[in-house]
C-alpha cells in the first residue's frame, strides 16, 4: 500500500485525507473543548478539538435507537472510555485516538456501540 493510500479514507461520502477533512454542504460539528459528554443532537458527523487530555464517557442527546454518528479525531488528546451501559468499543477497552483517526457509534437501548474504528 502506498503512503497516499494509507492517508486517504472515504467514510459515508466524506473524504478524509490525513489531517484534511472534506465534507458536503452540511459540514461537521465540533465538540466543545474538554467536553466529556458531548451532545450529538445536532447531526451525525462530529470532530474533536481538545487542547488537553479529555476522556469521552458518553454522548448526550441521542435521537434514539438507530442514531449513527461518526467522530473524526482532530487531535491526539481524546480517549473514548469503554463502559458497560454507556459506550461499548469493539476492542473492549478504552481507546486513545490520534489525529486523523475516526470512529462510528450506533445508539441502541441507551448504549452507544462502536461499530467501526479506524486507526492511523
Describe this structure in words.
- This protein has 120 residues and is mainly β.
- The chain has a single domain, classed as Jelly Rolls (Sandwich), CATH 2.60.120.
- The protein has 1 helix and 12 strands.
- The N terminus is likely disordered.
Give a short overview.
With 120 residues, the chain is mainly beta. The strands form 3 sheets. A 6-stranded mixed beta sheet has the order 4-5-7-11-12-9, with no helix packed on it.
* Stretches with pLDDT under 50, minimum 5 residues: 1-9, 11-25
- The end-to-end span amounts to 13 Å
Number of domains: 1
Rg from C-alpha positions? 14 Å
Question: How many helical stretches?
Answer: 1
Report the biggest beta sheet as strand number plus sense, adding barrel if it closes. 6 strands, mixed
Beta-strand percentage? 35-45%
CATH architecture: Sandwich
| Share in helix | under 10%
**Residue-averaged pLDDT, rounded?**
83
In CATH's first tier, which class applies?
Mainly Beta
CATH topology: Jelly Rolls
How do the strands of the widest beta sheet line up side by side? 4-5-7-11-12-9
What is the strand tally? 12
Shape: globular
Order of helices and strands: HEEEEEEEEEEEE
Give the structural class. mainly beta
Would you spell out the secondary-structure blueprint of this structure?
Blueprint: H1 3-7, E1 8-11, E2 14-17, E3 20-22, E4 29-30, E5 45-47, E6 54-56, E7 68-72, E8 78-80, E9 87-88, E10 95-96, E11 102-108, E12 111-118
Parallel strand pairs: 4-5, 5-7, 6-8, 9-12
Antiparallel strand pairs: 1-2, 2-3, 7-11, 8-10, 11-12
